[in-house]
Amino acid sequence: QVQLVESGGGLVQAGGSLRLSCAASGRTFSRYAMGWFRQAPGKEREFVATISRTGGWTYYADSVKGRFTISRDNAKNTGYLQMNSLKTEDTAVYYCATDSGGNAFTPRSAPGYEYWGQGTQVTVSS
Length: 126
Fold this sequence. Notes:
It is a single chain. The protein contains no helices and eleven strands. It is mainly β. The strands form two sheets. Strands 2, 4, 5, 6, 9, 10 and 11 form a seven-stranded mixed beta sheet that branches. A four-stranded antiparallel beta sheet has the order 1-3-8-7, with no helix packed on it. The chain starts with a strand and ends with a strand.
């Protein structure tokens, strides 16, 4: 089992930056692809970004491409989401997730992920 805990959320003004962290339990974090998702009030959970097991491949939703950067440090069992040039529409609860560890590819949507964190609130003010 994998336990994930997000941190780093908070209140920031539009145009500002925030860095989210995702701490994973155990010492086998490198087995899993990792993704970030977000959910705003009244909306469906949406894909934000994903990164392969060793960090060699990344993929971003069009809405965040060029502004957000996903990364991971497997030695620290931690994933990150650096968010720059934040917009009010980025306001949401952000979740990190990992897949089952058995995929031959890096999942790009929620059905491809198995373990989820509790979420951290990001609020962007104008």
